[in-house]
Amino acid sequence: MSTAAPLPISNPGARHRASSTSTRERRRAQTPPAAGTPRQRRFRAVLARAARLTVALALTLGTLVLAIANTAFRGFEAWLVTLALSPIVEHQLAASGYRYFVWTDADTLIALQVTLECTALIFTVPLTVAAAGALGFTRVSWWRVFAAIAALWVIIVAVNTVRLWVIGWATQTWGMDPGYVISHTLVGSIIGIIGFVLGVGALFVVLGFRRSRAKQQGGR
């Protein structure tokens, strides 16, 4: 009479759990302990948070001051578009305040103003405040915040300069109507929206929000 011996049954799930546990333990053992006592670590964390909030507040206030005292920045934009228009505008005149000039075919001098609705500040100010909020209330790194601010300012100011250039070129070529009317209301609005979208994209990409969300979804 023969008896059947029980066969060992392997449990892949148990081995996987044991392997995961041992991997976590090895990583925990390799992680150096934080320096200092718990009280010192809490104090450093409070200092770091206070520094982030202080710089975020300074960024916000500085941006709002620039928005209020906007005349100088609009003058810079007028100078920038004058420089860009100089190759195609004969007898180019220097920008005066926040005005830049073009000549029509009828030798009429037209002054175009960089108004509050036309300045890049209308987009850069709220996005900079949003970046300051990310610095103050999230754990995003300092360099990412300042890199994002620099990127969105460069992109939006450059695109807005292109917009002002198109308005100046169209006004010089076709006069106030249809040149200025079409380029300012239709084409200029489209270019402005493109600049805003690119600025928002630069803000989120450089801050790493999309990457963090992808990592969270991948870990589920």
Tell me what the structure shows.
The structure is a single chain. The chain is mainly α. It has one domain (54-219). 72% of the residues lie in helices and 5% in strands. The chain is built from six helices and two strands, in the order αααββααα. The protein has helices at residues 12-30, 38-68, 71-85, 121-137, 142-207, 209-219, and strands at 99-103, 109-113. Strands 1-2 form a two-stranded antiparallel sheet. A hairpin with a 5-residue loop joins strand 1 and strand 2. The protein is elongated, with a radius of gyration of 29 Å. The two termini are 54 Å apart.
What attributes characterize this protein structure?
220 residues; mainly alpha; 72% helix; elongated
Topology:
Elements: H1 12-30, H2 38-68, H3 71-85, E1 99-103, E2 109-113, H4 121-137, H5 142-207, H6 209-219
Antiparallel strand pairs: 1-2
Helix pairs in contact: 2-4, 3-5, 4-5
